[in-house]
Amino acid sequence: MQSTNRRRFMKNAALSTAGALLAGAPALAQGQPPPARSQAEVLAEIVRLRFGQHLSEAQLKSTQQRLGRQVATSEQMKRTRLTNGDEPAFVFVPEE
Predict the structure, then answer these.
(1) Which residue, 33, 41, 88, 93, is most buried by CB atoms nearer than 10 A?
(2) If you ran DSSP here, which 8-state letter would residue 2 be given?
(3) Computed from CA positions of residues 52, 46, 43, 32, in that sequence, does the dihedral angle turn out positive or negative?
(4) For helices 36-51 and 6-23, what crossing angle results, to 10°?
């Protein structure tokens, strides 16, 4: 196996991203974002390329599951509409 350098990593990352975008092209044509699962898979592939030699298969699978949950959470947050007058969920009051 060849050692990974910055140039090879960026090339693989770009190819992975392009592949995910092409896989999601039918969804984009219908006005829908690509599925969260494919985004998580692409991010997991980047992690595997970058850190794969240091991680076991179980760790890589766990990382992909966590990325999937984070992508799903981010999609849910994007759908939440806020107005200018919305207050935060908490107010920080420093102790004096």
Answers:
(1) 41
(2) P
(3) negative
(4) 160
* pLDDT tens for the 96 residues of the chain, in order: 567 677 777 777 777 766 655 555 555 556 666 665 678 888 888 898 999 899 999 999 999 999 999 999 998 989 988 888 888 777 788 887
Helical (H) or strand (E) element with 38: helix 36-51
User: In 5-71, which ranges are E strands?
Assistant: none
* CA–CA dist 41, 66 (Å, integer): 11
Residues 6 or more apart in contact with residue 39 via CB below 8 angstroms? 20, 71
Query: Helix, strand, or coil here: 55?
Result: coil
Alpha-carbon distances of 16 from 52, 78, 87, rounded to whole Å: 15, 24, 40
